[in-house]
Structure formats: structure tokens, C-alpha cells
Specification:
The protein contains three helices and three strands. It is an alpha/beta fold. The chain is flat.
Length: 71
């Protein structure tokens, strides 16, 4: 993560946190902010897909989250 911060001239890294548990999202948000990251939150797979773009540097994903993929 630190490499991207330097590469982009001091901007904070964006981390997408995907978890349906509000307490987990809050704890991870505190940790990430304390480590100079900007947390972006999603409660489920659909929200995560809507928020995911090229500005996200890292995704922290609850492995029990189900993503619905339509082909």
C-alpha cells in the first residue's frame, strides 16, 4: 500500500472493506484511518461491485459474502 501513496504524490490509499457486520467495518475503518488509508465500505457484494473502480488500491473481503454475477 505504501508504494502507491508515494507513487501518487501523497494521496491516501483507498481500501474497499466488504463485510455485512457493522462492527467489523467500524474496527477496520479505525485501523485503516490510523494507517493513512481511506476506507470505503460496502455491506454486501452488490454494493462492493457498485463502488469498485480503478481508484481502489486494496479490497478486504469477508469470505462469506456472496456475490451475484449475472452473465
Amino acid at each position: 500500500i505504501g508504494y502507491n501513496r508515494l507513487k501518487r504524490g501523497g494521496f491516501m490509499d483507498k481500501v474497499l472493506v466488504v463485510d455485512d457486520d457493522k462492527e467489523i467495518r467500524n474496527i477496520l475503518g479505525i485501523y485503516l484511518r490510523n494507517n493513512n488509508c481511506e476506507p470505503i465500505f460496502a455491506r454486501n457484494g452488490q454494493e462492493a461491485l457498485e463502488k469498485l473502480d480503478n481508484s481502489i488500491d486494496l479490497v478486504i473481503l469477508d469470505i462469506s459474502i456472496k456475490f451475484m454475477i449475472f452473465l
